[in-house]
Amino acid sequence: MATDTPSRPPSIAYLGPAGTFTEQALFTQADLAALEHVPASSISDVLRQVSGGEVALGFAAIENSIEGSVNVTQDALTFEADLLIQREVVISVQLNLLVSNGTSLSDVRRVVSFPHAIAQCRGWLREHLPDATIDASNSTADAARRIAEAPDGHTAAIAPGRAADVYGLEILAGDIEDHPENETRFVLVASDGIPEPTGHDKTSLVVFQRADRPGSLLGILQEFAARSINLTRLESRPTKQGLGDYCFLMDLEGHVADDVIADCLRNLHMKHGRVKFLGSYPAAGSSGDEVRSEASAASQAADAWLADLRDGIG
What we know:
This protein is an alpha/beta fold. The protein folds into three domains: 9-93 and 183-193, 3-Layer(aba) Sandwich (D-Maltodextrin-Binding Protein, domain 2), CATH 3.40.190.10; 96-176, D-Maltodextrin-Binding Protein, domain 2; 194-299, Alpha-Beta Plaits (2-Layer Sandwich). It contains eleven helices and 15 strands. The protein has helices at 21-26, 30-33, 43-51, 71-80, 115-119, 122-128, 140-149, 161-167, 216-225, 259-271, 288-310, and strands spanning 11-15, 36-40, 57-64, 68-69, 84-92, 96-99, 110-113, 133-136, 155-159, 170-173, 183-190, 201-209, 231-238, 246-253, 273-282. Strands 1, 2, 3, 4, 5 and 11 form a six-stranded mixed sheet that branches. The chain has a five-stranded mixed sheet with strand order 8-7-9-6-10. It has a four-stranded antiparallel sheet with strand order 13-14-12-15, with helices on both faces.
């Protein structure tokens, strides 16, 4: 007699190995923490696995409040993958200088980490380790792992505290990031599906100009201004088609299910060029639940008001 085999939870790829800042962010989401985790060697590999159906979901950093966009993520979503953002997660950055046991600050001659992490600690490194060689690694945790596997007493890694726990390293200096308000934004992506509107949402898209002519960007922006749609991010990226050929990456408040957003996207597509839709999803933020609750209450009140008016017809 056949027995039922317990189903495995969906899998989610993230920038590995264990102990990365990405993994730390992933663990802030209870539902994502319960999934089967698949560490990947690079952000590109995370998105490739989702596109190829090897995993159900991918989780990757897309923006930092100090260093700006994580271009490898943004470019992959724009030019290489047809994936949709399901959620955004924003957490504060807390970086540490990790070393093998017994290493002092005066011993450190080399510092290794992910380029974005190094950039966020430039001031601290300039003040405390001005003569150290700075080398890049695939991730913060990869830097920590390399030190743990081959301790030389002279190399340090910049990584989150979780990496110290995972690889048995010491935190020689904590909170070494230059800006205390430093935050990183991550996105959860899937091959299909748009989350239901919540009343506090964000939409991401890419607009490819039909022609590079004077006023083309102004024409695009006027579509948003005319509808009082707030853009929360706007930047240009080369299309890789030639010098001077750029597209515009945008985040805006609202959901594609909202009539005003849908009308705006329709006009952009019709009048200004190709539009690549990257997703509509719940916006992050400490007040997100409160905003969503207020929006729901306002929607219900508006429905009741409209129903009252229609009762008087005839």
